[in-house]
């Protein structure tokens, strides 16, 4: 394994950070490395908001469902899907533009994700730790208002960045053979593999919590499929001009 | 700049590949590095289809709008957003699951993108070249049928992987200051910066084509905003059980 692949395989979310700022210019280097990720037809449909205002950090920590590391991290970034800039550029160039298409929602969300993952890898290559914050989608309206996001821009997720002050284990993943299929989607082995992975995760939780957390993968997934998990997203996105048609 | 950041900054899409297979086990290593990317609540909402069947490769090259490198690449992967596996696992664990929520569409699409970007970086760290193929969304129904994708699984994009047989330039990106904003979305400088970037891209196109391509960023964006760009995506996704509510 080369050092880059070793780095990728050592990722874990960091939620405790040292009180140590990033050296001057490093954040810009990370963002610039992020921008080098592939982008659909070079549209670069993203904007990153770097939140330095302490009060806003506190508010975001609350809006994300109580995540104090948003305040404690050296940097907190909000990755936004941004179709505004490109649409307006095309419009100024004379295009009779159409807004609100679902394809544009996908392009912008995926562009933002590819870019963010490069930022994450770049940060980790500099011994920084990161944590994605999907919880911003708990209250996307309030987040958008706080960051003064205009129409055709929405907050996809946040990211805490800083020097790690704890050393959590790498979390297990499903076996490669479960998620990699040859030529066709064949899930005849999935259930047995998921059962085995439930055992893996059960062991992981027991070890990590000194026997306190008696759970597994399937159990932990249950809350993700209730109708309480961000049921507002469809209406929110449509209001922002995403996925209307 | 450390070697990983240098690697990230050297990315360019590769569309000409040597007739040279990947060493045994490397693809699995790349996928496994991909799986180490962050995943929303560990849901791992993705499946990758490795297409080895020559006839299917040809069909996919056509379905993607005529992209022969899909056939010529050593490997061609289709990254699918997959909510089926996790939903069924939660259901077997006793959850009264809800399907079709827009939040689930986002989670699965973003999970697939973060994972794919790690695969891309891992591949490039092994001197391989890659090219994302968003064109699979030109004909997502036919792609899904060909790969026998079930409900709650959809093809987000493809990726060609192989040893590069050309050496294209790195494509310019918008200035960091255009896409990185402090505390608030302030686009008062965007138009001037986009104008300058149009000049950068104009020069880039002229140089790359020996003076033949007289265009710029804004001009090239125009086709992305017509109502002909994948207007079927909303209906397609809903039919697949994504983003219904």
Automatic annotation (TrEMBL), chains A, B:
Residues in Nitroreductase domain copies: 9-163
GO function terms (MF aspect): oxidoreductase activity
SUPFAM superfamilies in the record: FMN-dependent nitroreductase-like
Keyword hit for Flavoprotein: yes
Keywords: Flavoprotein, FMN, NADP, Oxidoreductase
Superkingdom of the organism of origin: Bacteria
Keyword flag Magnesium: no
CDD domains, sorted: NfsA-like (cd02146)
NCBIfam families: PRK10765.1 (NF008033)
Family according to the record: Belongs to the flavin oxidoreductase frp family.
Protein name (Swiss-Prot/TrEMBL): Nitroreductase
Organism: Marinobacter persicus
């Amino acid at each position: 394994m080369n050092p880059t692949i070793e780095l990728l395989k050592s990722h874990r979310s960091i939620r405790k950070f040292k009180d140590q700022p990033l050296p001057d210019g490093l954040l810009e280097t990370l963002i610039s490395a992020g921008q080098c990720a592939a982008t659909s037809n070079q549209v670069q449909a993203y904007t990153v908001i770097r939140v330095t205002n302490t009060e806003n950090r506190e508010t975001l920590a609350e809006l994300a469902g109580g995540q104090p590391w948003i305040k404690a991290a050296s940097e907190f970034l909000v990755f936004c899907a941004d179709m505004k800039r490109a649409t307006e550029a095309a419009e100024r160039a004379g295009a009779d533009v159409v807004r609100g298409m679902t394809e544009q929602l996908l392009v912008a969300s995926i562009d933002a994700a590819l870019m963010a993952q490069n930022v994450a890898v770049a940060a980790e290559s500099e011994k920084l730790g990161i944590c994605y914050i999907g919880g911003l989608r708990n209250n996307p309206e309030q987040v958008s208002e706080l960051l003064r996001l205009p129409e055709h821009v929405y907050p996809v997720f946040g990211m805490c960045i800083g020097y790690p002050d704890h050393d959590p284990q790498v979390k297990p993943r499903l076996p490669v053979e479960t998620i990699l299929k040859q030529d066709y989607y064949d899930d005849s082995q999935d259930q047995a593999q998921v059962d085995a992975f439930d055992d893996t995760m059960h062991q992981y939780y027991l070890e990590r919590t000194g026997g306190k957390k008696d759970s597994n993968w399937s159990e932990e997934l249950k809350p993700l499929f209730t109708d309480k998990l961000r049921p507002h997203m469809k209406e929110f996105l449509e209001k922002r001009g995403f996925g209307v048609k």
